[in-house]
Amino acid sequence: MNTKIDLTERIAFHSEGISFVLPEEDNIRNWIANIIEAENCVLQQLNFVFCSDQYLHKINLEYLNHDTYTDIITFPYSEGKIVESDIFISVDRTTENAKTYDVEPLHDLHRVIIHGVLHLVGYGDKTAEEKTLMRQKEDEALAKLT
User: Fold this and answer.
1) Main-chain dihedrals φ then ψ at residue 39, nearest 5 degrees
2) Could you report the average pLDDT of every consecutive run of 10 residues in the chain (146 residues)?
3) CATH for 88
4) Distance between CA 51 and CA 32 in Å, rounded?
5) How many Å apart are CA 23 and CA 17, to the nearest integer?
6) How far apart are the first and last CA of the chain?
7) Number of domains present in the structure of the chain
8) Are 131 and 118 in contact (CB under 8 A)?
9) Residue 75 sits in which domain range?
């Protein structure tokens, strides 16, 4: 298992254009690393960038040519069992999702964080079956977050 120092170097949290600090960063790093390890993958580097709807919309337009708002965009830099990526998350969108689903904003943020990680370890969400499995894996991961 990775040491605390390794995790701090391998999983970084940033904010862009907003004032945001993720509560309990070390706990979240350990949680993410444990999920990756449980999926028999190797953590190389993850950079999470928390931003506004406008910032993520601009990225969506520029890099994916999608004129839509979204809660997360994941840019994987490796394939197979190696996990290396930049993950952009709209805090505005996760706050709105929380209202829609009647959950705490931090709960939805955690769900979106692990959703991105699950994509990186091989789970999809394009078909109904994939969406069902993705939601199950999200729920299992969220239950492990202490």
Assistant:
1) -90, 15
2) 67 96 96 97 97 98 96 96 98 97 96 98 96 98 92
3) 3.40.390.30
4) 20
5) 18
6) 18
7) 1
8) no
9) 4-144
If you search the block for the tokens 């959950």, which residue do you land on? 103
Whether this model's pTM surpasses 0.90: yes
- For residue 146, the SS3 value is coil
Distance CA 61, CA 42 (A): 31
- The answer to whether 112 touches 71, Cβ cutoff 8 Å, is yes
pLDDT of residue 4: 45
Q: HSE of 44 in the Cβ direction (CA atoms, 13 Å)?
A: 13
Residue 133 host element (H or E): helix 128-144
- Helix (H), strand (E), coil (C) string for 42-89: EEEEEEEEEECHHHHHHHHHHHHCCCCCCCEEEEECCCCCEEEEEEEE
Q: How far is CA 119 from CA 5, 58, 61, 134, in A?
A: 25, 22, 21, 9
Return the pLDDT at 122: 96
Amino acid at position 39, single letter: E
